[in-house]
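$ run holo --ligand "S-adenosyl-L-homocysteine" --emit tokens
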Amino acid sequence: MLNKNQIYKTEITGLTSEGNGVCHIDSMAVFVPNTAVGDILNVRIVKVLKKYAFGIVENIITPSSDRITSDCPISLKCGGCMFRHISYEAELKFKHQRVYDAITRIGGIDGSLVGEIIPSDRIMAYRNKAQLPIAYDKNGNITVGFFAQRSHRVISVDNCLLHSEAFNPIIDCFTDFANEYKLTPYDEKSHSGLLRHLYMRHAMETDEIMVCIIINGKKLPHENELCERLIAVENRIKTIVININCDKTNVITGKECRTIFGSGYITDKLCGLSFRISPLSFYQVNRSQAEKLYTIARDFAELKPDETLLDLYCGTGTIGLTMADSVKRLYGVEIIPQAIEDAKINAEINNIKNAEFFCGDASLAAEKLAQQGIKADCIIIDPPRKGCDSTLINTISEKFSPPRVIYISCDPATLARDLKIFNELGYSAFKVIPVDLFPRTGHVETVVLLSHKKPDGHINVKVEFGEGEGKVPLDNIAKRAEEYKPKERVTYKMIKEYIEAKYGFKVHTAYIAEVKRDLGLPMYDAPNAVEELKQPRKHPTAEKVEAIKDALKHFEVI
Ligand code: SAH
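-- output --
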């Protein structure tokens, strides 16, 4: 049995999906952050649980050959990077393995389909977006930074090595302004204070910069002066926007934006096309890697001039629009209204005439499109981390049955879960390519080509969609799509699977319900359910509570 505070000599033999080192002491798995495979070290045990324990590095006896010296003074504290202490080669190996493990263990898919990971050309200053929380530092001055690992404590950042260097003078200028005028940072607990986040975007190809200040209020004092000061330090700033978020939430942006300088958006170039990006629209954070990702997706799609392409979770339309020249018709679906507005304008500014975009939940919109008789030869899905729901997978398989589906994912675990459902419905994965869009962090993107096992099983009828003779009217789908209320479809099963895959233990439904209830989340229990308890109800352990909260965060429920 391991004891808290005791020190053990051991070797790190693997990394968890989050990137923490794992070693085995007395046949118990011990998780040790900031370590590398092959480190021989003394580990101090800090927490012992039934099946595993947590430790911290006491001292390293023989460093792993993967180790490098961290080039960031705050990398051990900051929650932004995971891998500043290991070589990029070792990081790529870990990410490839992470995709391989998820695909084989959760997805039940042949691991030999997983191709080489595509490395990033740049591993420094590649991020074109920063959303930095604002808080008081220990001297009572306003500071802008990153959250510490697994915490909402803000660590000041002077020179983040991941994001565009253009952001640093903007951060300094904004911090000076906020301190001079004694503005207050937002406090999550008391839901008071004005300044929530400083959010910046840098269109790296066109060199245009957007600054957005997210506030818990309607107005920022001395707005005009702030604009003048910011533009004086960085003349590439094309627009400055106030985003209003007065909700008690950890969602960063609110729904309302007010432009205080410029046009309210910036424009970037991707795969030779121009894309307008407004503050609430998604845009890939690593532009040059996104081009590689889209190129792979395009190769997988093998599009032909008479085909129809459906781009689900399309954001500002980037993926579909870069392929629109290869198809007859393109339809895009996305839930954020501003992103759909951008997508429509992006089609216009690139002179693309065969594209239509709809605002709504991908699952509901796909169902409606199918009902209208739309056929798709290729469907691209690029959902957020929680993956797509099984209803959408069913609709794709049963109602569209396209010869090719391309799944782009930023979470190997939910990807693998969804691939399993696809497989049960007759769609097999043919190629799996991990792409490193997020160097030095634990995240990895994956693109998968799926194909129907029975390629001749579908009827290839082309129906044109729009106004006019022989076309299927779909003019009011956008209006109807707006009425769709996106429902939170995170099920207890998803939470359980996520926790089992990540933490290796099971959690009871009652425990998830208890945590949800404690957090004040809506419960969907049947109103007439009668519960007979044979034994008094037990409560979840602190670890299980943390795991459940982690899952709820992962699926964006909290
Ligand atoms: N394909 C785009 C965006 C991918 S990010 C690109 O490469 O740039 C995922 C997108 O899915 C986001 O734009 C997000 O707003 C959108 N989204 C999230 N939930 C959705 C849902 N239920 N239905 C449709 N779109 C959704």
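-- notes --
The pocket of S-adenosyl-L-homocysteine is lined by residues 282, 284, 313-315, 318-319, 333-336, 339, 361-362, 382-384, 486 (CB under 6 Å).
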